[in-house]
Write a structure and sequence with these properties.
- The chain folds into 2 domains: about 210 residues, Periplasmic binding protein-like II (D-Maltodextrin-Binding Protein, domain 2, 3-Layer(aba) Sandwich), CATH 3.40.190; about 100 residues, 3-Layer(aba) Sandwich (D-Maltodextrin-Binding Protein, domain 2).
- The chain is an alpha/beta fold and about 350 residues long.
- Helix 3 crosses helix 9 and helix 3 runs antiparallel to helix 12.
- Helices cover about 40% and strands about 15% of the residues.
- A 5-stranded mixed beta sheet has the order 10-9-11-8-12, sandwiched between helices.
- The chain binds glutathione.
- The site of glutathione has 20 residues, from helix 6, strand 11, helix 8 and strand 13.
Length: about 350
């Protein structure tokens, strides 16, 4: 009897082994992307800072730059991307269904999303938190004054869930006014259809920057949640997960090592340190595990710059495309300056 059940266990193990071995022979996401000739990257509907559509039809922004960086890592060309602009409501199903290869659109990394939607979040590229914005002439100075207020919010978001938590915790009896479309939500707020708007604070800065009179609105001081925003991939392809994750790390590490879009060619010719040499593919074989060319990280920085350059262009206040969020000393600064941006070693 004992022997039999052990045999049974052995057969079960064998069956399990042959089953788990199957995905290894299936075509990898990297192969599919290479064969197709471009990356399919999901972003949001136009929002300054993250993913903005220029009048000539090109997408720009910090989340857009991550898509371009992954394309550069694979093809050496940041333009080999098909951008899929989707709303918050459908984003996760569209990725899980295989309509896109990755998602890079202000998506908060949570336990539920990371484990129950067929997705994996890769690496946080913006630490955010939820806040409220009100018309300046309302005189409201704190979100704790929003008792009984109507608040415009997007559905399918952590924003909607946090709003309910915050209202319950503080007995505010807030009345959510729920939208699927960012533009309709913004228009409703601007017409006075709700007392406040709630969003990630970077999202509020983005919304404000797009309003006809940005100075007429105030972002209230409270931050009511943690919103680590991170690109996500479909579960089940570890190499693809690593490619997207290490693309984000390459952007951060490049800033830490002082590698910029302007100096990356010189750095590769004359690396100032062994780690720069390894990262830029001049020494070692680090690219092999990713299945990419040895110049993958060089191509990334050459194409989109390092993390700080991207931040300065799109999230900061030093360029016309920026949305004016100060970085110095914030969570989005490098760890060497007191922030949370930290990449594991390139070795
Ligand atoms: N971080 C939150 C909120 C995401 C969110 O809705 N972000 C806004 C930022 S402005 C957005 O994407 N709006 C555009 C859209 O929904 O297409 C989440 O992951 O649920």
């Amino acid at each position: 009897m004992k022997k039999l059940s052990l045999l049974g266990l052995g057969a079960g193990l064998l069956a399990a082994l042959s089953f788990t071995a199957e995905p290894a022979v299936a075509e990898s996401t990297l192969d599919i992307v290479k064969k197709r000739g471009h990356l399919r990257c999901q972003i949001g509907t136009p929002a300054p800072g993250f993913y903005n559509l220029k009048s000539d039809g090109t997408w720009v922004g910090s989340d857009v730059s991550v898509c371009r960086a992954v394309a550069a890592a694979i093809f050496g060309d940041p333009n080999k991307v098909e951008f899929q602009s989707v709303t918050s409501t459908v984003r996760f199903t569209a990725l899980a269904n295989g309509e896109s290869d990755m998602l890079s659109r202000t998506a908060t990394w949570t336990l539920f999303r990371d484990t129950q939607l067929g997705l994996n979040f890769t690496a946080t590229n913006f630490y955010d938190g939820q806040g409220f914005m009100v018309p300046k002439d309302s005189g409201i100075k704190s979100s704790l004054e929003l008792k009984g207020a109507t608040v415009c919010v997007l559905t399918g978001t952590t924003t909607e869930l946090n709003l309910t938590d915050y209202s319950r915790t503080n007995n505010l009896d807030i009345q959510p006014v729920v939208f699927q479309d960012t533009n309709v939500r913004n228009e409703t707020y601007l017409k006075g259809g709700c007392d406040a708007i709630t969003n990630d604070k970077s999202g509020l800065a983005s919304n404000k920057a797009g309003f006809p009179d940005p100075g007429a609105h105030t972002i209230l001081p409270e931050t009511i949640s943690k919103e680590p925003l991170a690109p996500a991939v479909r579960k089940g392809d570890g190499q693809w997960y690593d490619i997207v994750r290490w693309t984000v790390f390459a952007l951060i590490a490049a800033e830490e090592m002082g590698i910029t879009q302007a100096n990356v060619d010189d750095m590769a010719k004359n690396p100032p340190s062994p780690e720069v040499a390894r990262m830029l593919g001049v020494e070692g074989e680090l690219h092999k595990g990713l299945g990419l060319d040895k110049s993958w990280a060089h191509w990334i920085v050459k194409s989109v710059g390092n993390y700080g350059e991207i931040y300065g262009k799109y999230m900061g206040d030093k360029s016309p495309d920026g949305i004016g969020i100060a970085r110095a000393g914030s969570q989005n600064d490098l760890w060497t300056r007191g922030g949370l941006m930290y990449a594991p070693p390139f070795r």
